[in-house]
Amino acid sequence: MDVRAILIVGEAIPEPVAGSRTETIGGVPIAYLDVLGMPVLRRVLARLRRCGVTGTTLITDASLDAEPFLKRAISGIALSRVNAPSEQLWQAAETTFQNYAEGGAELVITLRIGPYTDVDYEELIQHHLDHRCAVTMAVDSSGTSLDLFVLSACSRKDAITLFRSHLRQLRRECQPFPVTSYTNRLRNAADLRYLAMDGLLRKNSVLPVGNEIKPGVWVGEHAHIHRRARLVAPAYVGAHAKIRAAAVITRGAVIEQRAEVDCGTVVENSTVLAFTYVGAGLDVMHSVVGLRHLSHLLRKVEVEISDGKLVGISALRAVSRIAGSTAGFFALIPKRIRRRLSASPELQSGAKGHESGEQEKAPAETTTLGASGSTPEASELPLAVARRYGNQ
Amino acid sequence: MEISSRPVVVKRMPERMSLRQARNFLKEVQPFLTSDRPQVVFDMSQVRHIDAAGVDVLLQCMRDAMKHDGDLKLAALSPQAAIVLELTRTGRLFEIYESSTAAVKSFSSFLPNAIRSSYSPLEIVSVAAPDPLAIPIQDEEPEGAGLAA
Fold first, then answer.
1. Which end of chain A is less enclosed by CB atoms within 10 A, N or C?
2. What superfamily in CATH does domain B9-124 come from?
3. CA–CA separation, A359 and A286 (whole Å)
4. Could you tell me the pTM of the whole model?
5. Confidence band (pLDDT; 50, 70, 90) for A358?
């Protein structure tokens, strides 16, 4: 049987909060973001391929400025891609369907990502064939559409009605397919976090990409974990991620690939998105961090953090990353020489021991607080402050 | 029991506290902080963006106030400010109150009451529903509890 698939990434569900767009984090669709080492979109494509889909077309919203993330998500996968403006997204889907129908396809699976589901596509197709429907809609346990449909290629009118209503209306009643397996709407950062956490706890088929180095702790290839860093299960560290000294990764924390957690930072019940730098000495708790944004899951607030010393983003392209690290290395050498020169006269004059120890600690504190324009006096401030009240 | 009759200065922080704004803010509040035993409250309800420079200035202000045997308290934290203070671990260094009025009143409170009311200040802003993702842990007994009792 010739089964093809149309995947749509773009139009989000209308959001009750004005001015915000669902299904994105920092302007990037959640479908393009890594979950336990692999983008959601890639996982869906892999599932489709496993169930025997012979051709796939990905229709993306051109208004989304996330091209590098999309390229990463679909690299090495054979599919056709249509980048359409928002208003022509569904028209493009309709055209693709017609092309598939004319090309000899019998069934077309249409899904919007959107929601993630562990549905068995073979069961869904069998259900569609058994009930001899023109369109079969997959629904969750509450009967709500999961934006996943199977269309018979011969019933073009039904397909047109479906696409023109943005997957919200069927031309004829059909027997819906109840999805009993794991589903996640992936509307916001909290849903992304749930998906990752459920994957770590084996509640869904989102398996971590990497090796389980000890029970519940997964580490991707070429991840750099400092020997003084602590990983407490369940936890995931993606490929090429860097965990610096004294960092603590705990309570289901997920560090995606090529992310970096600097010295002394605690990541607890949080996800650090791929290509994200988290500064030194921070407490990242109950959050999804990345793309210069921090979404706090308890406060339900998304904050933009433009200070690269707190939360930064590293280049997606390897060339840019190499250039950046080379420049950083050469910028470090003069600093080191200057520090050595300034430290040596004091050592010679006999100011050893306790004083010199303080001298060495001071730069570390400056890095922790990380103000680009901080005065020298500010860096002297110890982190533990003994409070005094009144004139005591 | 009132033990203080010195004036309390309440200063509203600007919407943006990045490097330039933080410097200007520091210049504005410096005279208050360097006076004799200053009592200062920063109202952070308007703060929508604060970065490391802003946090640095807050610490510097607290240091200046404490140098002169005074105190600096924060009030009405916006969610953005609360998140950044929590992220940078600086929230625990300040007494944080729900409103400027509460912060001003705290200066005239008797000392043990002030400690009791100001303990674990970030809790006042975490009013959201409990997160099912969060694994429950048993809180350690606060260090100041014995002192307050």
1. C
2. STAS domain (3.30.750.24)
3. 35
4. 0.79
5. very low
